[in-house]
């Protein structure tokens, strides 16, 4: 229970009973949390390692696996994943903020209906319709091959299609907290709605933009099922798909290579996460779940 | 794609249906206007290209949609009255295509037999049945044949009664008067490369399946070859009769009539493949419950899906809350360090953790068995029950940091004097937790528990990456296993079970839609009652 920091300093037995055991719990839990991560780092440093060879932690330390990654399509997956996720998060932020601006600042026919509609849509996860997504992209591919199956642009379009339903509400709420007087003042000074949107509102809601962009990036980085349905050739795989195929076949898999790929893939996300922790936490509690 | 510079000047916000209209005289083209013009022009150009391309392949649905979308886009960005639409159109168009349409499409497919063997229309099915059921005409002359190529497309050049004819799979044989013939074989055709024996051998697979028709009428038959140098005449053994809408076997006279199931079927029950798409009503929905080979696994999988989602929420929440309470004491030093390290599993991408755990839980070589259990061979992922336990434990590892973060945040917002008051009234720690902390905590955490349930109900990647749904059930018509949840079952039915059954998969998707929808709806209602506390 929360107590103020001015509580008397405890010693000996009472310290153990009230504080000390908490450290024991913490240390045990940290061991549980960190062990798999230590294991994967160790495996990544074990050249030519298989599953068996990876069990002695840090028996060898060699960067050979990292060097070997590049000849096997990993670079393409890495760049491809970054491109897909960046495009998705930028698009999500732009579309979501534009929609939230319209709902928050304009009064028009169908506004209430539109908001209710978004609320309903958000209840139905897009990934459940993956069969229809596959069939849709199959027919779009006849007309626009660039948006069909096996196209990263097509994958981004699918992700963006699901973005509005999930994020518009989160952003709408935040936009409403920005006082209207600000844009009314700007309007009186002769600013257009475009100027108000780009130069005033977007600056003021920057925290929520960062959260939505980040969650969208992390979400699409780990998204698997739609990516697997849309991208079927190894050249276009995202990291999630590529690494899955490396790790899935336990008999032939070069476990060390997979581990190295996993470490490289995780580093940017983990750093981003730890660095922006408190923003992400506020975004999480505002209604999203890890994807 | 919202325009940075508006067309309208300061005016009361116009409305969609007949608001204020800004006079034309006050428009000043600004740089933003030209940006908008360029963007809309690009969209228009792509749209028009799309309309033409879609018309060329006769996708009339896409044509209609594109035309409508273009009208809406141009109206939104050039009409001064469509102010909100300028901000809504890009998102709404994508939402309509990729979410609303796909949901509706799922609904439609669920009522059809769409899938392998029923992929297309009846016309396509008739053409491909006629094409596939061909036999060599006995006693017909063999034709000297050369394999030719143009832009990567293969074709045949044959000599028929002294005349050279060239054709491909798409283009029936047509005379090629300028071709050179040496020793009865075609050696050169203008506009085509004649392949040498070595090249033919290299593309043997393509050559043996190539079928060049004599004319546009399938009944005339086609030329095929086994060795790339002799052509044989093939004629269809099944003739389609348009008047009676039946196929007749030209050899034994059997008639095949179209059935309700979207196939041509003979009187003795022989089915011609492929068939075509037809509506099957509620068959897909009832199949999951009535097909005895499917209903057993389906019931088990449904039960496991609920159990898994429920256990995920309960275990992660319990551990997360416990840790949050443990570290919510200001006297614990280094709380920041603990927190940063405890959320590491959450920061590490989930799909990677699942794959790492898959390796660590390997029966023979995994870290857990080899090192932690001193060489035991526990079948973590091979035994049905242990696999379920493993999934719940790995998910606990993945998910408790989220609950820890959320609970920490919620605990800090509970006023300290409320708890102080309870303590003065004589409540012990357990009583305070049960009667004060938990109810207050639930107000902010309950909606997250609901969405966590919905998320885990569809936690495809964890299941797929950790166990792949295995160990598999034996004797089911689809490849599903003890740890499959509904969504991974849908995936397996749609893509991984030999024959793809999009109809059945979509019907199952809809059942999940319903469950998730009901849970979310109940969640919303429950949240509202909590907020009234």
Give me a quick take on this structure.
The complex is a heterodimer of chains A (291) and B (533). Chain A is mostly helical and 291 residues long.
Characterise the protein shown here.
The complex is a heterodimer of chains A (291) and B (533). In chain A, 70% of the residues lie in helices and 0% in strands. Chain A has 13 helices and no strands. Chain A is mainly α. Chain A has helices spanning 12-44, 64-68, 74-105, 111-121, 130-143, 152-176, 180-188, 193-204, 206-222, 225-230, 239-248, 255-275, 277-285. Chain B has 3 domains: 31-110; 123-272, no CATH class; 288-532, Orthogonal Bundle (MetI-like fold), CATH 1.10.3720. Chain B is built from 18 helices and 16 strands. Chain B has helices spanning 31-56, 60-78, 83-110, 122-132, 197-202, 204-209, 283-290, 292-326, 335-342, 344-347, 350-360, 367-372, 384-412, 416-424, 429-457, 460-466, 486-496, 502-531, and strands at residues 134-136, 143-150, 153-160, 163-168, 174-175, 180-182, 185-188, 193-194, 212-213, 222-225, 230-236, 238-241, 246-249, 255-258, 264-266, 271-272. In chain B, strands 1, 2, 3, 4, 5, 8, 9, 10 and 11 form a 9-stranded antiparallel sheet that branches. In chain B, strands 12-13-14-15-16 form a 5-stranded antiparallel sheet, with helices on one face. In chain B, helix 1 runs antiparallel to helix 2 (60-78), helix 2 (60-78) runs antiparallel to helix 3 (83-110) and helix 17 runs antiparallel to helix 18. Chain B is elongated, with a radius of gyration of 34 Å. The two termini of chain B are 44 Å apart. Chains A and B meet through helix 1, helix 3, helix 4, helix 5 and helix 6 of A and helix 1, helix 3, helix 8, helix 9 and helix 10 of B.
């Amino acid at each position: 229970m929360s107590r103020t920091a001015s509580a008397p300093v405890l010693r000996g037995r009472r310290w153990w009973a009230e504080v000390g055991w908490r450290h024991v719990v913490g240390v045990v839990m940290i061991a549980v949390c960190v062990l798999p991560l230590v294991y994967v780092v160790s495996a990544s440093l074990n050249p030519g390692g298989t599953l068996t060879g990876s069990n002695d932690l840090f028996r060898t330390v060699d960067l050979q696996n990292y060097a070997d990654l590049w000849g096997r399509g990993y670079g393409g997956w890495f760049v491809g994943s970054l491109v897909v996720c960046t495009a998705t998060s930028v698009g999500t932020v732009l579309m979501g903020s534009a929609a939230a601006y319209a709902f928050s600042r304009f009064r028009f026919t169908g506004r209430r209906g539109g908001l209710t509609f978004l609320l309903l849509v958000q209840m139905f996860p897009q990934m459940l319709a993956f069969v229809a997504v596959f069939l849709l992209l199959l027919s779009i591919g006849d007309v626009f091959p660039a948006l069909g199956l096996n196209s990263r642009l097509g994958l981004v379009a699918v992700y963006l299609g699901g973005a509005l339903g999930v994020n518009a509400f989160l952003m709408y709420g935040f936009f409403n907290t920005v006082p209207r007087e600000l844009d009314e003042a700007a309007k009186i000074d002769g600013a257009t709605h475009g100027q108000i949107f780009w130069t005033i509102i977007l600056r003021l809601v920057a925290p929520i933009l960062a959260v939505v962009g980040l969650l969208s990036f992390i979400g699409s980085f780990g998204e698997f099922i739609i990516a697997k349905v849309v991208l079927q050739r190894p050249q276009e795989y995202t990291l999630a798909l590529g690494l899955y195929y490396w790790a899935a076949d336990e008999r032939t898999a070069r476990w060390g290579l997979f581990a190295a790929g996993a470490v490289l893939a995780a580093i940017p996300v983990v750093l981003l996460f730890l660095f922006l922790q408190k923003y992400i936490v506020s975004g999480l509690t505002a209604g999203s779940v890890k994807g | 794609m919202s325009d940075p510079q508006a067309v309208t000047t300061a005016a009361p916000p116009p409305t969609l249906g007949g608001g204020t209209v800004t006079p034309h005289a006050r428009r000043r083209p600004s740089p933003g206007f030209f940006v908008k013009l360029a963007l809309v022009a690009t969209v228009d150009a792509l749209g028009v290209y799309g309309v033409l391309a879609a018309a060329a392949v006769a996708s009339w649905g896409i044509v209609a949609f594109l035309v409508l979308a273009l009208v809406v886009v141009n109206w939104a960005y050039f009409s001064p009255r469509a102010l909100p639409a300028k901000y809504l159109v890009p998102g709404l168009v994508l939402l309509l295509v990729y979410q609303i349409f796909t949901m509706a499409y799922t609904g439609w497919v669920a009522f059809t037999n769409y899938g392998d063997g029923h992929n297309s229309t009846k016309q396509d099915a008739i053409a491909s049945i006629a094409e596939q059921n061909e036999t060599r005409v006995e006693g017909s002359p063999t034709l000297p044949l050369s394999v030719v190529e143009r832009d990567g497309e293969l074709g045949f050049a044959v000599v028929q009664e002294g005349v050279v004819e060239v054709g491909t799979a798409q283009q029936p044989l047509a005379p090629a008067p300028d071709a050179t013939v040496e020793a009865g074989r075609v050696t050169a055709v203008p506009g085509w490369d004649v392949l040498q024996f070595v090249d033919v051998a290299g593309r043997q697979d393509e050559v043996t399946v190539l079928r060049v028709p004599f004319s546009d009428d399938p009944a005339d038959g086609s030329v095929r070859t086994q060795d790339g140098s002799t052509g044989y005449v093939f004629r269809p053994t099944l003739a389609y009769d348009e008047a009676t809408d039946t196929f007749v076997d030209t050899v034994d006279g059997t008639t095949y009539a179209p059935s309700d199931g979207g196939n041509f079927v003979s009187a003795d029950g022989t089915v011609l493949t492929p068939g075509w798409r037809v509506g099957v009503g509620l068959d897909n929905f009832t199949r999951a419950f009535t097909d005895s080979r499917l209903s057993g696994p389906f019931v088990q999988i449904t039960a496991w899906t609920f159990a898994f989602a429920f256990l995920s929420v309960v275990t992660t929440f319990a551990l997360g809350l416990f840790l949050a309470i443990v570290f919510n004491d200001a006297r614990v030093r280094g709380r920041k360090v603990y927190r940063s390290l405890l959320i590491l599993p959450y920061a590490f991408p989930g799909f990677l953790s699942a794959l790492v755990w898959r390796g660590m839980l390997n029966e023979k070589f995994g870290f857990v068995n080899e090192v932690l259990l001193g060489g035991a061979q526990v079948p973590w992922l091979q035994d049905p029950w242990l696999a379920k336990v493993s999934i719940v434990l790995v998910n606990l590892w993945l998910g408790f940091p989220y609950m820890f973060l959320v609970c920490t945040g919620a605990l800090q917002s509970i006023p300290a004097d409320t708890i102080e008051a309870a303590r003065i009234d004589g409540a012990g720690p357990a009583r305070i937790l049960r009667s004060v902390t938990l109810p207050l905590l639930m107000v902010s955490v309950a909606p997250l528990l609901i969405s966590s349930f919905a998320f885990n109900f569809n936690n495809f990647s964890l299941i797929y990456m950790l166990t792949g749904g295995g160990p598999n059930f034996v004797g089911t018509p689809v490849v599903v296993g003890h740890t499959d949840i509904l969504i991974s079952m849908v995936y397996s039915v749609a893509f991984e079970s030999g024959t793809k059954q999009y109809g059945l998969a979509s019907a199952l998707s809809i059942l999940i839609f319903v469950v998730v929808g009901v849970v979310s709806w109940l969640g919303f209602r429950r949240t509202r009652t909590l907020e009234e506390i």
